[in-house]
Structures are given as structure tokens and as C-alpha cells.
């Protein structure tokens, strides 16, 4: 029995065992006892996680894959969660315990998986896995890069992002039309921002929505004082600002609205 890849679920099954093992080995396994694999498919990555000194859970939306996993990985059967990760309250499984996330993520929802991870950052010290190469590069890119954007800044505010290696289409069934990239996110030791975090998210998103404009123009809706708008930082475009400068920007706006 094997599982047929379903286009509407964005399924491309990894067939290279050495790459699967390499992805599994990217986790440090420090400071947590549980790992959640998203979209395990037929378990090519799962088998290497099960060899490690950690409790592996998998979450899978495809009923056919769920049946395959339960039939072929008997020691995993009671830890197969048949749910949509984006819609499921994972605290029903882990409570408040920390856990890592890993997976060969469906390309069509990979950014949403990262955003949900950011929402749960208090519980997720590590995140590893495979994305479309361009998305992995965007998450890890620094200021000044053409692909640097919302996903880059918000992720790197809380996690150190490292691009690990590139994976060619030929090691998948069916092969995707693009290269893939594997990355590792390691939560920062101090991941609490010295500014209002809701405001920070809003500033980053609004700044990049009009990325060709200076921040003085793209952030007009914040009704900033003339004195603040004269600050040199507002004459820059969003892709010129580092994560630290975006935090400073949020602090400036926060203080300006309180005056």
C-alpha cells in the first residue's frame, strides 16, 4: 500500500532517505521532549524522528496518509492527529509543554504555518523543515535583499533563522517545478520585544505593503507628529531597515502616540 499524492493538498513526497535523515538531524532536541511533524505523508521523515530520544507526534489532514501511518508505524498509531494544523488547537495535545515543529511543508500553506508558529512562540523553541526554496530564502534574508519582507522581519524578531541546504525536484514524487530549501529556526534567548508587540506587527506589515515608498508615507495612518516624521529613519524604505531598526521604529511610534 502506498499513498497517492494529492494536488489540492500540495503533496510532493520526499523519496531520498539521506535528505530525510538530514532534516531530522537538524533539530538540537534541547529544552523540549516533544516534536510535532506536520504533513508526514508516508513517514519518510517520521521514521528518523522515531529513532530519537524524543516523543514524536504527527498531524496529517489526508485520511489516506493517516491510515498508512497507523498501519506501518504501530508505535506511532496513538500519536497520529488527523487534523488541519492551521485550524487545530494543538494545546489539546501538548497543553503548555514546549515542543519543536518539523516537516516537509505543503508549499501552498508554508507561510501560514510559520505565522502560526510565531503566535505560539512561547511553546516552540525550535522549528525545522522544507519549504519552496524562495520562501526559505525570504525567511532567512537580511535587510537590503530584494526578497526581505514581512515574513523575514517577523520571524527574525523572535528566532535566529538559518538556511541549511537546497533540495532538487528530482528527489520527490511527483517532482515539484521548483527547488526546495531546508531551514532551521532557533528561538532567541530573549525573545520578548522591548516594544508593544501588536504595534510592531502592524508597523512591519503596513511598511511592507507599500515597500517602494518611504516609511514616512507608508505609515501615514499612524498620525505621526511632524517632529517624529523628521527622524531620519522615516526617510528610509522598509527593506533598508534591520529587525532591530523596526523594533526602534515601533518604540518611536509608541512613544509618539503617548505624548
From TrEMBL:
PANTHER family reported for this sequence: DIMETHYLADENOSINE TRANSFERASE (PTHR11727), DIMETHYLADENOSINE TRANSFERASE-RELATED (PTHR11727:SF7)
Pfam families with a match to the protein in the record: RrnaAD
Function noted in UniProt: Specifically dimethylates two adjacent adenosines (A1518 and A1519) in the loop of a conserved hairpin near the 3'-end of 16S rRNA in the 30S particle. May play a critical role in biogenesis of 30S subunits.
Family: Belongs to the class I-like SAM-binding methyltransferase superfamily. rRNA adenine N(6)-methyltransferase family. RsmA subfamily.
Catalytic activity: adenosine(1518)/adenosine(1519) in 16S rRNA + 4 S-adenosyl-L-methionine = N(6)-dimethyladenosine(1518)/N(6)-dimethyladenosine(1519) in 16S rRNA + 4 S-adenosyl-L-homocysteine + 4 H(+)
Annotated ranges, domain Ribosomal RNA adenine methylase transferase N-terminal: 19-189
EC number: 2.1.1.182
Subcellular location: Cytoplasm
Designated name of the protein: Ribosomal RNA small subunit methyltransferase A
UniProt superkingdom: Bacteria
Keyword Coiled coil: no
Chief location: cytoplasm
InterPro entries reported in the protein's UniProt record: KsgA/Erm, rRNA_Ade_diMease-like_C, rRNA_Ade_methylase_Trfase_N, rRNA_adenine_dimethylase, SAM-dependent_MTases_sf
Residues holding S-adenosyl-L-methionine: 12, 14, 39, 60, 84, 104
Keywords attached to this entry: Cytoplasm, Methyltransferase, RNA-binding, rRNA processing, S-adenosyl-L-methionine, Transferase
Xref: SUPFAM superfamilies: S-adenosyl-L-methionine-dependent methyltransferases
HAMAP family documented for this protein: 16SrRNA_methyltr_A (MF_00607)
Membrane spanning residue stretches: none
